[in-house]
Amino acid sequence: MKVRRIMLLAALAVAVSIAVSPEGQAGGGVTPISICDQIVTTNAYLVSSLDCEPNTPGVIIGADGITVDLKGFTIRGDRSSLRYGIDNSGAHDGVTIKNGVLRNFDYGVVTHGDKVTLSNIVASGNVNAGIYVSGESPSLKSSTASGNTGSGIVVASGSSAKITSAAASGNGEDGIFIGGASASVKSSTASGNGFFGIEVVADTAKIVSSTVSGNADGGIAVDGNAAQLKGNHAEANGFAGGASNAVGLGLSAVGYTIAPVGTNVARGNDDPNECQPVSLC
Predict the structure, then answer these.
(1) What is the 3-state secondary structure (H, E, C) of 109-157?
(2) pTM
(3) Which of 7, 74, 244, 256 could pair covalently with 101 via S-S, beta carbons 3.0-4.6 A apart?
(4) Do the beta carbons of residue 188 and residue 163 sit within 8 Å?
């Protein structure tokens, strides 16, 4: 894992630890969201697209167990530091965020609660990561992260993350990065990202039926024990800057005492070995 990424994640953890969202409990009723910087403590829905004023966040989560439905609308920021499109830095648990676009914030989504669900979210053009998650058992479904300066999707800590039918393309760093154990990535795509398509630094990763192509450093990279890599396709990865140095693999697993298992298809990647260990393809 690159030193720059470690420093970035550490800096974010410090920053959000001092951000205080008002506490509350999910109550009855449904709240319309009509302005930026609105704190929601019940189920809520966006009534229209929003262009936030400078140095202003989008929606702030203020209670456990609530659902925020963006209704297909867009919330747009001005790329101010530490301003997030969806801000759950207060670590509320059991939150669901769905059906909308977060654009031009520092991070499109930041969430630190346990058992958070994101579905049908698009995070694009953000300064750092499109979607940043920490906490136990997060679920991310049918969501897209593209054109973010940092990584597309980051699961920084916690265990048992599930990412299904995600797409990460054209991000400056990894398409999908996971630092939590027992993570699962299924039926997802990662293409044209500046580092790896999918990178996991943890044990017991499971990456299946996913496609990675045209990523600068390599396709799928796992650092940890007992990875399962099955039915993935990796093509034309490893050509950083459009040049060949014969080191970019389609799939790689390192740092293990329990070997990875699975069979995959890898072709046209910069390293002619295609996979490491070669048994993976």
Answers:
(1) EEECCCCCEEEEEEEECCCCCCEEEECCCCEEECCEEECCCCCCEEEEE
(2) 0.90
(3) 74
(4) yes
